[in-house]
Amino acid sequence: MKSILFKHRSIRRFRSTPIPEKVLREVLEAATRASTCGNMQLYSLVVTRDEALRRRLSPCHFDQPMVAEAPCVVTVCADVHRFTLWCEQRDADPAYDNFAWFLNASTDALLAAQNLAIEAELHGLGICFLGTTIYTARQICEILELPAGVIPLTTVVVGYPDEEPGLTDRLPLEAVVHYEKYSDYTAAGIDELWAEREASELTRRLLDENGLPNLAQVFTRNRYRREDNLAISRSYFELLRRQGFFNND
Amino acid sequence: MKSILFKHRSIRRFRSTPIPEKVLREVLEAATRASTCGNMQLYSLVVTRDEALRRRLSPCHFDQPMVAEAPCVVTVCADVHRFTLWCEQRDADPAYDNFAWFLNASTDALLAAQNLAIEAELHGLGICFLGTTIYTARQICEILELPAGVIPLTTVVVGYPDEEPGLTDRLPLEAVVHYEKYSDYTAAGIDELWAEREASELTRRLLDENGLPNLAQVFTRNRYRREDNLAISRSYFELLRRQGFFNND
């Protein structure tokens, strides 16, 4: 029998039922059991349950209704601030305000976030990761009052599911796994890896809806467009400097 | 009863017993079930089992014996290359060679990596994440022949454990969880959060070994020093440009 990991679906419709304190605490504790660089735990989990505040966060996530509807929105942040404060109070000279530690802290934070998601699902909760977090990270910093040394990476919406979506397809395992070294793809290989998805009913529907000749163009022309990608790259990088994660000299 | 997530320990001594194909495949498949941005699966898992190649990777991880000893070393990479190739073959105009997509791909990759770790543990395997990956990412790119659009983020060593370490302590949950908004720490709060760890037997031993007055200085003066942090920041950022993840204009 396959593990719980094989049952994951992103949930986008939630009941308003609150998460019992004890369950939420266990979910958050499970997050902290993930591997962490030097046991430094370079992340913060901002757990927003207050409805008014969730409504303020909602535009940061393009007003997807789940942000206001689900009982709990967890903004997952890289955090070198807490560790830096501790060092300063101990007459130690911390140098964690640079890109290496953005990477280390992000790794800590995202491993913890996935533990949080899995533990939530073990308790019958549903989750959805919100990639919109990096688009609007500056506004999220303001709403959640994140100090320097803290920056949002992703958001996990958590609550009891009000839908039962089917499992999403994935590319064949061979698409993402390389044995020994990286084996580059041939043109025929790429065609083969995407063949099933491109032939699917879902793809046919997407092409109809978008009026486009193929699935790749749905991504490049509608979903994740050049001008948006560049604007997000610049704004997040600027925020990275502003929040004190890029003092590399 | 608490979930498997509460039993995680990093394993650093492994038996040489190979991982059965079927188990390895299930572990890798579990990785692909993690949430992924737009179902794009922007990562590659480079699974190195060949001993000679593991020995070549070993210096990239400061010659920690587990890299040569464990049967399987998985280098977890952000990968926009595969998706870009597909777009190009479909007459779509991809723009994923920028910082926003380094962030999206890293998120995909690290959520998948944590799934991999958990599924491995469900099968009685042990794992260790290697933070050294970002220190020597350029050399890893060369050894594993990673093309532009691919960059290493972390490494997971996987195998059957040859040790049974105890659970590592964590800061109190209140250290990393903030309710509603971020609540900044008071000096007294910081003291309290670290009190138990600072009073521990492990800390006493570390201070003796390092000849230093407190635990914070073990980090800043010995483990993660300013000059190293800055050098890693610069070298990884340079690699990010070189691998084509920073064309933001």
Please tag this protein with its features.
alpha+beta, homodimer, 47% helix, 249 residues
Can you characterise this structure?
The structure is a homodimer of 249-residue chains. Chain A is α+β, with helices and mostly antiparallel strands and 249 residues long. The first copy, chain A, contains eleven helices and five strands. The first copy, chain A, has helices at residues 21-32, 51-57, 65-69, 81-89, 99-122, 137-144, 173-176, 187-198, 201-210, 215-223, 226-242, and strands at 43-48, 72-79, 126-130, 150-159, 177-179. In chain A, strands 1-2-4-3 form a four-stranded antiparallel sheet, with helices on both faces. In chain A, α1 (21-32) crosses α5. Chain A is globular and about 60 Å long. The N and C termini of chain A lie far apart (52 Å).
Short description:
The structure is a homodimer of 249-residue chains. Chain A has 249 residues and is α+β, with helices and mostly antiparallel strands.
Number of strands of chain A: 5
Which word captures the global form of chain A?
Answer: globular
Enumerate how many helices of chain A there are, as a single number: 11
Q: Which quaternary structure do these chains form?
A: homodimer
Helix/strand layout:
Two copies of one chain form a homodimer.
Chain A: H1 21-32, E1 43-48, H2 51-57, H3 65-69, E2 72-79, H4 81-89, H5 99-122, E3 126-130, H6 137-144, E4 150-159, H7 173-176, E5 177-179, H8 187-198, H9 201-210, H10 215-223, H11 226-242
Antiparallel strand pairs in A: 1-2, 2-4, 3-4
Helix pairs in contact in A: 1-5
